[in-house]
Amino acid sequence: MSSQPNFNEHYKNLFDQLPPFMKKDAWLHLTTRKNNPLFEEQAKSIHSDIEELLTREVDRYFNKKNCQKIKIEANTFSDGSSTLSWLDGFEKQLEEHEYDALKSRLESEYNNCMHNSHLAELEKQYKSHISALDKANAIKDKEIGKLSSTISQLMNEKWDIKKTADSVCKDLEDIIFTKDLKIIALNDRVIFSNPSAGSDGTIEPNTFISFHDAEYWTRKREDAKSNLNIQKKYTF
What we know:
With 236 residues, the chain is mostly helical. It folds into 2 domains: 9-123, no CATH class; 155-233. The chain contains 7 helices and no strands. It has helices spanning 12-15, 20-32, 40-43, 48-74, 80-193, 211-224, 228-233. The radius of gyration is 56 Å and the shape is rod-shaped. It starts with 11 loop residues before the first helix and ends with a helix. The relative contact order is 0.04.
């Protein structure tokens, strides 16, 4: 970074009032100070810190210049000693005023730094919380994925079981139907070979000897659809 002052023309009225060494000191102060130093491009631009510093330096320069002038004039008079004493006190007051102003500015800069530090800490905490939430969400999504997979597997198993059960029921129905047909056929053969033996009243015959018998077995079939005991007792 250049150590030669290169202030913006906007401040020409101020820096033209300063001697070269004070211009250089002001430039170095702005670009090398510990707290918030300005980059060279910033120092070349229009900035509130620049105007504040140059104004303060101009005031300080002319105050000292006036003091020196008064000292010179005081030496030419007989009562110059009292004037010099007053002038020394005045210079001391100026120095104290400059010290107070500098102290106030430094305290302000310090407070700004502390504020920025607090903001940085808050931002760090915020990012930490966000990171923790992201991790928690990732774990939650993973668990949801596992749960969804388990539910899907259980649903598939349920359908497989239902399909198997339906198949078994169908096989059982076929077996029962075949058994019923054999029982009915056997019953018919018994009746045919020995009519006097009579028929089994729980077995539906292949042929009916009367309309009443046909109606009776039709009604039994309908009742059996909703009555398990009839299904167990009668063979259709």
